[in-house]
Amino acid sequence: MKLDSPIFIDADAARIHLEAQRWPHGPNCPHCGNARADRITAMKGKAHRPGLYNCMECREQFTVTVGTVFERSKIALNKWLLATFLLASSKKGMSAHQLHRMLGVTYKTAWFMAHRIREAMKEDVKSAGPIGGAGKTVEADETYIGKRETPRVSAQRKKNCFLPSISTRSRSPWVIALSLESSTS
Ligand SMILES: [Zn+2]
């Protein structure tokens, strides 16, 4: 994964990537858990935000960011993905000031993003219940977010960068792999 990857530049590409990561078998409703393809419709047309789905079971609408730290943010999703990638892959850590310059957002916004992402990374995954929620499948090769004792992974190794997200409803964090080829260190 390179810094000029479309998912870091384009909001739609970022959303499509996140959808593929979070919903490998198609969208499922974060409100009621419905995952039936024939009971979820994509809302098309200019009146709707791209990536908006309608659940025919509970009649709620949702996007891929519902239940994640990216939820209800006005910051473009590609910037969130880039910030997460930078924070997770930078060996020496990254300051809000660096983020501010690299993302082209204000320092205040960069600080907020870094704070949110770090909070999500800090969550104790083990004590917070199964990743992804009970019975949910999360495809991941390695986990090394947050914990101080987490081993460093060599730059040569293909590494997965995990997008941490805290569910705003169950409070249980889930992480999804970005499957990033490290190229920043
Ligand atoms: Zn639903």
Question: Would you kindly provide a brief summary of this structure?
Answer:
Strand 2 (53-55) and strand 3 (61-62) form a beta hairpin. Residues 137-161 and 166-185 have low confidence and may be disordered.
Q: How many beta-strand elements?
A: 5
Q: Can you write the helix and strand succession as a string? A: HHEEEHHHEE
Largest sheet: 3 strands, antiparallel
Rg result? 16 Å
The pLDDT mean sits at: 75
Q: Low-confidence spans: pLDDT under 50, at least 5 residues?
A: 137-161, 166-185
- Fraction of residues in β-strands: 5-15%
What descriptors fit this protein?
about 180 residues; about 30% helix; disordered C terminus
If you had to describe this structure to a student in words, what would you say it looks like?
The chain has a domain of about 110 residues. Helices cover about 30% and strands about 10% of the residues. It contains five helices and five strands, in the order H-H-E-E-E-H-H-H-E-E.
SSE inventory with pairings:
Elements: H1 6-9, H2 11-22, E1 40-42, E2 53-55, E3 61-62, H3 77-89, H4 96-103, H5 107-122, E4 162-166, E5 173-177
Helix pairs in contact: 2-3, 3-5, 4-5
The structure holds zinc ion.
